[in-house]
Amino acid sequence: MRGKKVAIIGAGISGLAVAPILAKKGFEVEVYEKNNQPGGRAMVLEDSGFKFDMGPSWYMMPEIFDQWFAKLGRKREDYFSISKLNPNYRLFFPDDEKITITTDWDELENIFEKYEPGSGVRLRKYLDESEEKYNVAVDKYLSMNFTSLWQLLDFDLLRKAVVWKMWRSWNEHVCKSFKNAKLQKVLLWPAVFLGGSPKNLPSLYSLMSHVDLQQGVFYPDRGFQSLVQAMYEVGTEEGVNYSFNSEVQKIHVKNGKAVSLVVNDSIKEVDLVIGSADYQHIEEHLLPNTEKQFINWDQRVLGPHTFCIYLGISKQLHNLTHHNYYFQEDEEWDDHFSAIFGKKQWPKNPSVYICCPSKTDNQVAPKGQENIFMLIPVASGLNDTNEEREKLYNYSINILEKVTGDSIQDHVVFKKIISHRDHIELYNAFQGNSLGLAQTLLQTGPFRLKMRHPNISNLFYTGHYTQPGTGTPICVRSGEIVAEEVMKYYE
């Protein structure tokens, strides 16, 4: 492969994952990134002594990251350390009750028994099945490029699909065993990691309960920027060349092959292209009209947009752990998901995620102050007005004051809101979406967008629109899979 020029569009997680693997195989790898730093949605924001992870904040499935480093002959711990959070997170409810979640089985069982006597035994059965699903998914689904339904014709997989009633929604699966609304939320909230709602995701994804409640939640020292910088460093060690502030404007195609890119108005010849940027942006804005796949984007179920608020608070706050969620009542919980996937409108009384990494890491905020990152999932494609931003900001501050019991407004020393139009500008994100395609049943496995362009033989895709799905560790796997596909292409 020596001398073959591979151009990667975008230095997001999947682009960072594939680049050093191919460089190690002898390819000349160039990564073009439109922003001034690597990471894509996992970029870092620094201001006024605060350091914010702009995107992912949950370090889960740590073995996936460790395996990536091992594949490249390295150890993750030589680049950064991780620590297991205890507690995992805290859940707040409108009736002022709160539930603190850990991976300690006795504590979990006591929580479930408190709210629903007899549910501890059912939780054990539920988590055993979740673990089995997880192991099957990691072994089978998360290591394959599904190009055909025939790849699903595995007797053992089909048998398990029947046993697990995979056609049922995750919501149905949970509600069949647990009747208490608070406990249902404990088990169903990770749907947000998959870009879907509990009602439109298949029950396969109850595997996330194993990740959440049994594996636990970790934190990389100094935040996700440590992972991004480590992946970037491994790439440079393997000879990858990264060009920042370099926006790919066009892909030139000749005789069914990509032959060059236009980058900042300059022509760059290529032997192969990997799109780690937004799939829709590449298809609709970089390719000639004659080469587009003509995907009906209106029929695709996009994951939500993440409305994000970054705050520097000039005092310490009470009641918060590193990760926190404020969950609304049942009707408003349902209305929130309906606003995202049904009505496609701004939510009225949504649930709110509150991250306070300064509870764990004293390097992300000045001494005696707090680093706060709040996130509300909303529909992609909304009209992102300043009025809507301010309305949701004020709502979020009220929630933060409610759960902490502290006054907040007069102590905000740094504030930044990131919403749809920022994601479009920063990431060329289709409709400002944050998570690519939702992991619905008809957007799982062979039903996701193709990893290799059907008409352009040397154009490949990686990331959260294609195989195997959405989420940071899954995008690492996507980078590994596309590297294997490129190697097959040159066999």
From TrEMBL:
<comment type="similarity">
    <text>Belongs to the carotenoid/retinoid oxidoreductase family.</text>
</comment>
<dbReference type="InterPro" id="IPR036188">
    <property type="entry name" value="FAD/NAD-bd_sf"/>
</dbReference>
<dbReference type="InterPro" id="IPR014105">
    <property type="entry name" value="Carotenoid/retinoid_OxRdtase"/>
</dbReference>
<dbReference type="Pfam" id="PF01593">
    <property type="entry name" value="Amino_oxidase"/>
</dbReference>
<dbReference type="InterPro" id="IPR002937">
    <property type="entry name" value="Amino_oxidase"/>
</dbReference>
<dbReference type="GO" id="GO:0016117">
    <property type="term" value="P:carotenoid biosynthetic process"/>
</dbReference>
<feature type="domain" description="Amine oxidase">
    <location>
        <begin position="13"/>
        <end position="487"/>
    </location>
</feature>
<comment type="pathway">
    <text>Carotenoid biosynthesis.</text>
</comment>
<keyword id="KW-0125">Carotenoid biosynthesis</keyword>
<keyword id="KW-0560">Oxidoreductase</keyword>
<dbReference type="GO" id="GO:0016491">
    <property type="term" value="F:oxidoreductase activity"/>
</dbReference>
<protein>
    <submittedName>
        <fullName>Phytoene desaturase</fullName>
    </submittedName>
</protein>
